[in-house]
């Protein structure tokens, strides 16, 4: 008779003694192959990190972004803008970078940038990663000064700092300016990915208000071995030396489109190895619906993005078919949310009605070998042919004010997507906190995101904690939430969000929040080789290890802490229909001592199981502890006060 064993592990981490948990179980499916992934991680419900400006009216968090890894330490970093911070002049603006670490972003900024050119109402602080524009292995960042004046009023400028082993320098490495009055270059900006396949990342910048000639533009500059300087020939970027641009009427003209109010990489939607770009035009009108909004996509190639872009020569476009819904104000790459190897895009329309007034909506279109055209069946997009969509389903929820890829927050191998809803109301006990705003996440899968097409069906919600904090509110530009990358190096993506009107307690000082994945994760090894496919099949005499890691903080005042980790570990024989428990591992208690200072400890608990044809031979337990310097007491994460649980079914087969 073939014996089947199930290992069930339950992780319960806390600073209190915990009892074992028992659940009813049914006989497992023992198919020989599966694409299911180990269900580990997931975003915590409350932010693990926050930062505020402590200056009235600074509106920190108006723009937030991943910074990539600017110092090459293996942890992603974050960048936060406060465009109304008053430093050298009123509302001159400021930007901050916080480096990642094993416990997340730094408590205080590791880098602060004030505008290189200080002017009244300059509003420096629209921020983004630039990718790695010089190919040195360190990510770079850019910050715009949207009201920059240098011979032309409010022409706008963008400044780029290159990363290095020591992080970001004090002086910018490259800049671009528009040389055109009221252009507001840099109102939006993003990495373009690598649109020409030369191995260097490129940037895309919007200049949406050329009021004097009624034309708006989006500009792309290519990276190179010398960065954006194009081998020493382009120390400053201008419209005249951009590697590509797209243009359309600005919204001040009768035919205005507000073209360039959103620019972004689209990822690689046709799988040709070149990244693609998108440009939003929130007030685009095609004659049938006034200001319905649109998104235009151009595909990359070995020579870049082709001829100068127009609304007529885009490789693909999408419209909303509804007047005045702000479709295209928010648009971005969605990553690969259905795991088919092609990049997907996501677009928000935050005052979309169907039928609830300003409920908002989000639409996603999947890439394919023919791009977003879906095998020639979809030459253009609209809500009726979106591959996935979700509506707010609540009046003035304003879903879709910011959208994008969340990365992979639950380690299932599929990218996930997020959308903000700045009209979201949070529940705190018996109280309703109105307009706190929230970031909502839907998990990707082989069929794309799930749910019932309503905001309530989101897989996760990160809420604001204050009335009218308005997380995701489109205050000065698009960009009040983003993937934070992996700020703590646990292999899972994290989320950053801004609340520019947050009072804490200073009025409108603004705050930024990072929601990190739960501070535990599970790894499975078969004979020392990692695997994340479930169920795990092993042969006779194989050894399987279930490794559970988590952070435990040695607090409060004593230098010695006793931690109880209750870890039921049942081996169940499924040779009968009901199953019978063979053995259960004991609860493990250990003592962590640090005589000098409190320490964050990475706790690694390993169960090793080996078995022969008829019985389990051995079950061994081991424990390792690795210390990291603790942050100040107010940095203690919430998991020191809460219990974390994950259920990991693991099927062992002796075939």
Explained architecture:
The chain is built from no helices and 42 strands. It is mostly beta strands and 655 residues long. Strands 7-8-9-10-14 form a 5-stranded mixed beta sheet, with no helix packed on it. Strands 34-33-35-40-41 form a 5-stranded antiparallel beta sheet, with no helix packed on it. It has a 4-stranded antiparallel beta sheet with strand order 38-37-1-42, with no helix packed on it. The termini are close together. The model is unreliable at 1-41 and 548-655 (pLDDT under 50).
Write out the strand line-up for the largest beta sheet, numbering strands in chain order.
7-8-9-10-14
Number of strands: 42
- Mean pLDDT level: 77
Main pleated-sheet profile? 5 strands, mixed
Strand content: 35-45%
Report how far apart the termini are: 10 Å
Percentage of residues in helical conformation:
under 10%
Q: What general outline do the C-alpha atoms trace?
A: globular
Number of helices: 0
Tell me the radius of gyration: 26 Å
Low-confidence stretches: 1-41, 548-655
Structural class assignment: mainly beta
Short characterization:
The chain has 655 residues and is mainly β.
What are the key terms here?
655 residues; 40% strand; 5-stranded mixed β-sheet; 5-stranded antiparallel β-sheet; disordered N terminus
Write the layout of secondary structure elements.
Blueprint: E1 4-13, E2 49-52, E3 63-68, E4 77-82, E5 94-98, E6 111-113, E7 124-131, E8 140-145, E9 157-161, E10 174-177, E11 188-193, E12 202-210, E13 215-221, E14 236-237, E15 244-249, E16 259-267, E17 276-281, E18 294-298, E19 316-319, E20 327-335, E21 344-349, E22 361-365, E23 388-391, E24 399-407, E25 416-421, E26 426-428, E27 431-433, E28 438-442, E29 460-463, E30 481-485, E31 494-499, E32 511-515, E33 520-526, E34 529-531, E35 543-553, E36 560-565, E37 569-573, E38 580-584, E39 588-593, E40 599-611, E41 616-629, E42 644-653
Parallel strand pairs: 10-14
Antiparallel strand pairs: 1-37, 1-42, 2-32, 3-4, 4-5, 5-6, 7-8, 8-9, 9-10, 11-12, 12-13, 13-15, 16-17, 17-18, 18-19, 20-21, 21-22, 22-23, 24-25, 25-28, 26-27, 28-29, 30-31, 31-32, 33-34, 33-35, 35-40, 36-39, 37-38, 40-41
């Amino acid at each position: 008779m073939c014996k089947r064993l199930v290992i069930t592990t339950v992780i319960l981490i806390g600073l209190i003694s915990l009892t074992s948990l028992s659940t009813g179980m049914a006989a497992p499916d023992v198919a020989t192959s599966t694409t299911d992934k180990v269900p580990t991680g997931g975003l915590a419900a409350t932010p693990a990190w926050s930062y505020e400006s402590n200056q009235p009216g600074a509106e920190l968090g108006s723009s937030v972004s991943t910074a990539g890894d600017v110092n090459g330490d293996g942890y992603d970093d974050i960048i936060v803008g406060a465009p109304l911070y008053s430093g050298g002049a009123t509302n001159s603006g400021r930007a901050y970078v916080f480096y990642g670490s094993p416990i997340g972003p730094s408590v205080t900024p590791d880098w602060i940038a004030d505008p290189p050119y200080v002017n009244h109402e300059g509003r420096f602080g629209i921020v983004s990663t630039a990718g790695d524009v010089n190919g040195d292995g360190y990510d770079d960042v850019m910050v715009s000064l949207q009201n920059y004046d240098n011979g032309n009023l409010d022409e706008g400028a963008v400044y780029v700092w290159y990363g290095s082993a020591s992080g970001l320098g004090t002086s910018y490495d490259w800049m671009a300016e528009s040389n055109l009055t009221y252009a507001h270059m840099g109102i939006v900006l993003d990495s373009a990915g690598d649109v020409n396949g030369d191995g260097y990342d490129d940037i895309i910048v919007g200049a949406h208000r050329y009021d004097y000639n009624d034309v708006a533009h989006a500009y792309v500059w290519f990276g190179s071995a010398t960065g954006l300087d194009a081998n020493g020939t382009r120390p400053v970027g201008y419209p005249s030396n951009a590697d590509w641009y797209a243009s359309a009427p600005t919204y001040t003209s009768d035919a205005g489109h507000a073209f360039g109010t959103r620019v972004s990489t689209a990822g690689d939607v046709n799988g040709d190895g070149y990244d693609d770009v998108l440009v939003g035009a929130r007030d685009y009108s095609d004659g049938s619906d006034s200001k319905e909004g649109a998104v235009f996509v151009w595909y990359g190639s070995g020579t870049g993005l082709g001829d100068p872009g127009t609304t007529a020569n885009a490789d693909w476009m999408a419209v909303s078919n509804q007047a005045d819904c702000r479709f295209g104000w928010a648009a971005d790459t969605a990553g690969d949310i259905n795991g088919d190897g092609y990049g997907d895009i996501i677009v928000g329309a935050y005052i979309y009605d169907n039928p609830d007034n300003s409920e908002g909506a989000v639409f996603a279109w999947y890439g394919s070998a023919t791009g977003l055209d879906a095998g020639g069946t979809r030459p253009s997009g609209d809500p009726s042919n979106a591959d996935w969509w979700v509506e707010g389903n609540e009046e003035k929820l304003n879903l879709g004010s910011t959208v994008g890829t969340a990365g992979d927050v639950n380690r299932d191998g599929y990218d996930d997507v997020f959308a903000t809803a700045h009209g979201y109301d949070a529940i705190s006990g018996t109280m309703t906190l109105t307009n706190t705003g929230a970031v909502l996440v839907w998990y990707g899968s082989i069929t794309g995101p799930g749910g019932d097409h309503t905001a309530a069906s989101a897989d996760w919600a990160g809420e604001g904690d204050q009335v009218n904090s308005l997380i995701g509110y489109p205050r000065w530009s698009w960009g009040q939430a983003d993937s934070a990358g992996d700020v703590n190096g646990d292999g899972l993506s994290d989320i950053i969000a801004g609340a520019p009107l947050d009072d804490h307690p200073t009025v409108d000082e603004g705050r930024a929040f990072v929601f990190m994945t739960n501070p535990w994760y599970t790894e499975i090894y078969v004979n020392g080789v990692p695997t994340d496919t479930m169920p795990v099949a092993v042969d006779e005499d194989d050894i399987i290890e279930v490794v559970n890691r988590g952070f435990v903080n040695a607090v409060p005042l004593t230098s010695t802490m006793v931690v109880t980790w209750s870890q039921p570990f049942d081996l169940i024989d499924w040779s009968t229909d009901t199953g019978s428990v063979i053995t259960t591992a004991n609860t493990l208690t250990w003592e962590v001592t640090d005589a000098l200072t409190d320490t964050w400890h990475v706790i690694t608990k390993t169960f090793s199981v080996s078995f022969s044809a008829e019985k389990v031979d051995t079950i061994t337990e081991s424990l390792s502890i690795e210390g990291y310097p603790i942050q100040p007491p107010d940095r203690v994460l919430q998991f020191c006060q809460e219990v974390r649980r994950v259920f990991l079914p693991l099927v062992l087969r002796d075939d």
